[in-house]
Amino acid sequence: QQVDEQPQPASFVPSEMLMPPDYAGQFFQPASNSDYYAQSSYIGSFDEEPPLLEELGINFDHIWQKTLTVLNPMKPADGSIMNETDLTGPVLFCVALGATLLLAGKAQFGYVYGLSALGCLGVYALLNLMSSSGVSCGCVASVLGYCLLPMVILSSCAIFFSLQGTFGTASALVIVGWCSLSASKIFMSALDMEGQQLLIAYPCALLYGLFALLTVF
Amino acid sequence: MHPAGLAAAAGTPRLRKWPSKRRIPVSQPGMADPHQLFDDTSSAQSRGYGAQRAPGGLGYPSASASPQAAFLADPVSNMAMAYGSSLAAQGKELVDKNIDRFIPVTKLKYYFAVDTMYVGKKLGLLFFPYLHQDWEVQYQQDTPVAPRFDVNAPDLYIPAMAFITYVLVAGLALGTQDRFSPDLLGLQASSALAWLTLEVLAILLSLYLVTVNTDLTTIDLVAFLGYKYVGMIGGVLMGLLFGKIGYYLVLGWCCASIFVFIRTLRLKILAEAAAEGVPVRGARNQLRMYLTMAVAAAQPLLMYWLTFHLVR
Fold first, then answer.
1. Cα distance from A35 to chain B (closest Cα, Å)?
2. Of the candidates A5, A46, A51, which has its C-beta nearest B70's C-beta?
């Protein structure tokens, strides 16, 4: 029996909104479109649906691995982990930073988001201009977001005691150094640019320094 | 339509509903995909899932699946999807082409071809230019050599980083004086950018009025004018550590250095003969000389204007 259905143009757009748990085709970046429809003549069943988290591309194991990479800046990075442009972890860390700032008495979510967006754009432009091979904006956002984790630690310290002293300044400097070291290490391994680690680390340090300004003052 | 579809489902062997939503199977995660730089390695997990799931079902209701399965199965919506994604690719190409019209990306890449040694030497030159002899930029077959190879060539990395560092240091200074709030950061950045734009426009206007034909591009000018931010940062930092005395000392030092440093600009504006120190008569050259001196004199003024309110 033919399995070709009558065309249903009316359901083209609304079906995305009707069945969000099933239709998550936007999350993967298509490399070649012909593969999608190679087996178009079928009627599948609901049982072989992939689980929701997998369809959304959220892989908690990878997120945890990447977090551990960031938390240990001395260990050499494996360039392939950062190949996924996974934005779940970064968004989570941004929200965590905003939440800890809120607990410390500063409701500055808008500044956190605005600064991270501008910073991502700036570092994306800089890396594309400086390196011979380009990067995608998603990769930059992902790396910068993961390396924001030590800043969350700093701002959670700010809840308990004020950072406006010698100890606060010193710890802010250490945290900024930690963040930018991790970020530049991952960029170096992903972009393969030798001899320019300091040049990459400095813009990242500036961005995290701006975050530290928000946290400390 | 739907009953026919369901009947077909009963008769045919069960297939995966979304067989190729993942990409072509790559043999290992992290392998370079020719279409994009970074692989989506989460697809490595999904292939494992797919193999496990195909034989067994989980008893989910299949009624909700059929409209979607039906919609994806028919050739018209296949074509529509393919058209939609090719449209997206076309849109991306269009954006890339138009960006190139407004922002000359290849020209900008020249100014960012730096390495750590160049940056170090240039910063040293900015603070102590008195021992440097040869200020000419080397040329290689009519095009100037990349900054990586010649310390006299202008670059945009240092000015850009110096600008952002200036905003950061301004925030730090305001914070230590308890005057900080995050919107002040934006205010400082915007005002410094506005002054820079004003300066560039003023110099371009005067170059036009004096009818000087030089090979000084706008980006070169931005680079030269951006170097003063390094001195400003030094001044403010010293002011934070040692008070007003330190601020004035370092600012005076950096102003003197900028005077000397503007020699590179002079070489570009003046005619060749005049630049080598041989006095050449003529109203034109005098005008050019005055212009260069005006630019050089404006630098310390701006450096003071943009930093004095930060040091108390």
1. 6
2. A5
